C-alpha cells in the first residue's frame, strides 16, 4: 500500500519528493565505505525477504515495511538499502511505479532513519524491555509517518482527494500495531543473540 | 520467481534490441508526459499504444491483467471516496452523501492515466533481468558503491531466501501455523532476527574474502550493450510522440 503507482502524482510534487529522496540516497551512499558494501547488501536482502512475508490479519494479510528496524540498523545507509529493495520489487513483482521510485524511497526510508536517530541512544543504553519498547514505538510511528507522507503527496497532487485521505490512513493503523510488535520482538531477539547488532550506530557505521 | 533473481532466460522480444538505458529513459519520459495529459481521447490512445507495446514485448496477458489490478487496487478507496467526499460542487445528494460530477470526472481521468502508465512501463521494464538493470544503473553514472550494493543484494537474496525457507520449514515442522495472534508475531520477530544474524555473519565472511582478494572499491561491469541506431530512433520517436501529445492536449 505504500507504493504509489505511476501517473498519480503531479509533476511539482513528483519533482520535489524525488529530489528529497535523491538527497537522502546521496547522504547514505556517502557514508558507505568499502567494507559496508556486503553488510548493507545483505541487510537489504533480509529486508526484501522479510517484506514479502505475509503476516495474517483476520481474513487478509499484511506485509511489513520495517522502516524503523532498517533505520535502527543502518542509519542513513537505509536509503541505499531500501532503494535496492524498491528497484527489485518494481522489477520482479511490478510493485510501485518507475517514475515514483524516488518518492517511495523518501516515504519509506526517511521516517525510520529520523526516528531511529532519536531513539538509538536510549536503545543502546537501556534495559532490554525499554529498548524493545522504544524500537517498537519507532517502528509503529514510522509506518504512520510513511502513510502520512503518501497521503500528503496525493492530496497535494489532487486537492479534491484530501477528504478521502483520512479513510486511507485508517487502513494503516493495524499495520502500525503489527510493526510495533514485530520490531520489538526482533529487537529483543537481537539483544539476546547478538547485542552489538542493534542500536550501536558504530556497528555498520565506520569504515577504517 | 526464485531463479529469475540471479538469472532469467528472458524470452527475446523486439524490445530487447534496445539498450537498457534507452528503455528506462523512454518509459520515464512517457509516464511524465502522461501525468500532464488531461484529454480522455489522448489517454485512451496511450492505453492502446501501451497494449500494442505489451504485445510486441510478448508479455503474457495474465501478467498484464495482474499488474493492472494491482495498480488499480491502490486507488480503490480513493475512487470510492472521491465522488462521495470531494469538496467540489455536488451533483446528486442522497442524505449525507453527495455524488459530484467533477469528482467522477477526475476519478475517470486518473484511472485512465494510471492504466496507461502501467501499460507503458510494463513492456519496457518487465523483460529486464536484475543484473542487466544493475549494469545499466552503473552506466547511467550512479555511484559505483550503490551499484555494487544492488548487485550484491541480487546475489544474496537468492542465498538468504534458501536460509529463510529452511527456517520456515523448521518452524512448520514444530507445528507453527500463522494466525492473528501474539505468538505469530513473536515467531516472525525471531525469524527475522535470526535471518539478520545469519546475514551479518555472512557479510563478515564476505568482507574478509573481499579483503583477501584486495578489493579496492571497483568491480568491472561487463556488458555487451551499446547505444545503436535503434536507440536513437526510439528516442526520436518518443520525443515526437510526447511533444505531439502535449501539443494536442493544450489545443
Helix content, binned percent of chain B: over 70%
Query: How many distinct helices of chain B?
Result: 9
The interface involving the most residues is between:
A-B, 77 and 86 residues
Structural domain count of chain B:
2
Overall radius of gyration of chain A: 17 Å
Helix proportion of chain A: 55-70%
Q: What structural class do helix, strand and pairing data of chain B support?
A: mainly alpha
Mean pLDDT of chain B comes to 82
Low-confidence stretches of chain B: 1-8
Order of SSEs of chain A, N→C? Answer: HHEEHHHHHH
Give the DSSP E fraction of chain A (strand runs of 2 or more residues). Answer: under 5%
CATH fold assignment of chain A: Arp2/3 complex 21 kDa subunit ARPC3
User: For the terminal residues of chain A, how far apart are their CA atoms?
Assistant: 40 Å
What is the fold's blueprint, element by element?
The complex is a heterodimer of chains A (208) and B (251).
Chain A: H1 11-30, H2 36-50, E1 54-57, E2 60-63, H3 67-74, H4 78-93, H5 101-125, H6 128-157, H7 162-170, H8 173-193
Chain B: H1 20-36, H2 40-56, H3 61-74, H4 76-85, E1 92-94, E2 97-99, H5 101-126, H6 130-139, H7 144-173, H8 182-212, H9 229-250
Antiparallel strand pairs in B: 1-2
Helix pairs in contact in B: 1-5, 1-9, 2-5, 3-5, 4-5, 6-7
Concise structural overview:
Chain A: This is Cobalamin biosynthesis protein CbiM. The complex is a heterodimer of chains A (208) and B (251). Chain A is built from 8 helices and 2 strands; from the N terminus they run ααββαααααα.
